[in-house]
Structures are given as C-alpha cells and as structure tokens.
From TrEMBL:
This is NnrU domain-containing protein. It comes from the Bacteria. It is found in: Membrane. Keywords: Membrane, Transmembrane, Transmembrane helix. The chain crosses the membrane at residues 40-59, 71-90, 110-143, 164-186. GO terms for cellular component: membrane. It is a multi-pass membrane protein. The lineage of its organism: Bacteria, Pseudomonadati, Pseudomonadota, Betaproteobacteria, Burkholderiales. Residues 3-190 form the NnrU domain.
Amino acid sequence: MMVLILGLVIFLGLHSIRIFAEDWREARIARIGEKRWKGTYSIVSVIGLVLIIWGYAMARREPVVLWSPPVWAPHLAALFTLLAFILFPAAHMRGNHFKSLLKHPMVIGVALWAFAHLVANGTLNAVVLFGAFLVWAIVDYAAARRRDRAQQIVYPDGTLSRDVMAIVAGAIAWFVFAFFLHGWLIGVKPLG
C-alpha cells in the first residue's frame, strides 16, 4: 500500500501545484522555460503513475474488503466511465458544448471515473486510489473555476459537429479500453 500512496503523492501532488502554488509554478516556468518545465513535469508524472499502477497491483494481491459492491455497480461504472472517456477529448477540442457548459470537462471526467470505480470496488486499496482522485478532482475543479472567474474567462458556445467528434472519439477509446486493454493492463475484464 505504501508504493500506491507514494505514487499518489507524487502524481496528485504534482498535479496540485497549480491549485496551491500557482506563483511558484509560474516562477519555475519563467526560470527554466516552458519546454523544460513540461519535460520535467511529464517525467515526474510518469514516475508517479507507474508507482500508482505497481502499488495498486501489489495491494490487490492481499485485498482488505470493506464492502461488497452491489450487483448493478459494474453497469453504473461502465456508463460513468463512458461519459468520462467522452469528456477527456472534449477538454482538448475547441467549440464543443461539453466545454462551454462544464468549463473543465477533463476534471469532471476524472471525478466520474473515480466515483464509478469507488462504487464498483469495495477494497481498501480502491478507496485509497479512487478516493484520492475523486477528492483531487473536486478540489481542482473548484480551483480552476476560481481562476476562470478571476481571469474573466468565457468559454465559447459549442457546435454539434464538435460534440459528435468528442462523443465518437471518447466512445471508441472507451470501447477499446473496456473490452481489450482494461483486462490486459489492469487484470480485470469489466464487461466480461
């Protein structure tokens, strides 16, 4: 469990710099340059992610069961995860309704993904992993909206064609991940 927690501290800590230390972040970028910042950020993120995956896999070997998920939980998780997969590309596409309505669709997608997995898993390691991501997503969303208001950022209206692009891209990615990659990478086939 310690490897999982270390990975979460590294990954979510790094992704929380903008929430809690925006001035420090801006000063580092100014000092070392944006490319070097992004390179270092990416390397540290990958290290944190690898530790999360490795730590979660180790913790799954001796699970501490806290509750038995309801029989409908995997179906709810599949639906929420599909929505999350649609929100991920929507966050990077200009001119879609997801972005204009939600403002930060990727963070909401992370929250949906985390909540879905909390409901569908009843082990301590799942609570630590998905609970940490859910709390982080809520805090990050609040901070991002506060920044938007302070900077008077307005998100333009979306178009149906951009919505369809986000939906199709997200649905295809979800299908590939749910039916092929999840079992191979995570060791669990969520949809049989």
